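Below sits the subject:

***
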Amino acid sequence: MTMQNPYQAPQAAVAEPFVAEAGIEQVASAQKLIIYAILGYFAAVALQGVLGLFAALLLVLVVCAALVGTFKLCTGMGFSMASRVILLVLMFVPLVSLIVLLVLNAKATARLRAAGYHVGLLGARR
């Protein structure tokens, strides 16, 4: 006969313990920048006929955000220096940069979900 304490709390593994992956916080913040850059591209194109010069200024700000986000994301995900340089150069080609941002966003989403983050429309949260 085994002796069990009737007043002992039940024991259960509720959730997996979080293992901090190197650079995952950097990937999360860079993904937000990339998402904002994608939304900014669409806003700049939509407002180009109405606002003209202001839309061009918005597009310059979006390209700067895309450059910073791409560099941070590539660094956080451990891309080689050659691929970082190629991706940063591709940010200056209008339609190709949008496609590159969408692909990088998909890769970051997969990495963040594997690390236990919840990824929504405007980025990741724990």
About this structure: Residues 74 and 84 are 6 Å apart (CA to CA). DSSP finds four helices and two strands in the chain.
